[in-house]
Amino acid sequence: MGLTYSKSIRVGGFRFNLSGSGIGVSAGIPGFRVGTGPRGAYISMGKGGFRYRQSLGGPRPMHRDTTPTPTMTPPPSAPAQAAGLVEYDRINFMELNEASGDDLIATMNTQAAKWKRWPIVGGVWLLFMFILPVWLADATSNASQILLVIAVCSVFIMPFVLIFLAWRDHVRRTTVLFYELPPELDAPYSAFLDTAKWVAKSRRFVAIKSSKRYADSKYTAGATTGLRTEPLKFKLGKLPFTACNIQVPILETGITKMAFYPDKLVLMRGMKYAGVAYTDLNFELTSTRFIEDGSPPGDATVVGHTWQYVNRDGGPDKRFKNNLKRHISLYDELGSGAPGLDIRFMSSKHESLKDFVMAINAFVLPQVEAG
Is the pTM above the cut of 0.90? Predict the structure, then answer.
């Protein structure tokens, strides 16, 4: 049987209870007390041999992630550390473009930055319609008739003029991309498109925005790392203000779009473009033990279980009510870095991102060998 220690000290109307699990304090009158301690706040009342005690709630967990994103478990040997934030999805477009020296990307940025003419023409027309009543009041009869004819005609004609100018502005700001793949790369690139579509069907396919270290993993299901993620959107198509003879996989997270063209990865944020050659990407593929915040996705590989409040031996901490059981799934995590670039993805479909990287290498390596 283990040894325990407890001691009670009275100071005025307060009673301090010292024990191995912590310090508690209570106050009240005989038969009724209110207190708090390591297990939370409580009230206690009774008389003679009868006593009633009701918990008012357990202690608040420390460093809980308030986002709906579940936590990620580290290797079993990793100790808990002080909480610290690491941000991902960081892109320095200037550094990327300086490193690549890509003339095509420079052209795309120049084209997209051209000013639009249709808002200026539309603004001048609205100003004319606003001032027209003042002119009509001061104009002669003939001049008034001429102004009215101009105003009426502009109402019918100006919408078509603005539509035409908007189309012309779009054409002026669009960069045309034309790809003619050699026969030996047709099959590898088609296989890459199929793999990208397959990966995008993962039940949980997200971009990792940031991670932080927990100071105490007891309250985070044993995990020492928490993640903030954002869903990834996938489509086959083209980037805004580009025209291309082929469709390419595009991943979108927040305001960032990533297009996987045959020769390079093109990123777009706002109206700025950056390009990264595939050979300059440093893919880091790892498997992650991920604690689910509910039922695991249908395509996830469940490798174990834990508890929301966990003891050092891995068992549930019975001091907490509603201590839910958590599933541990095996996820794929992919980091791709380059000068000025740090982005990370995660997929619930185990080894799907491994196939994604292999599919990229299948059509990139022949180009490198040919070069």
Answer: no
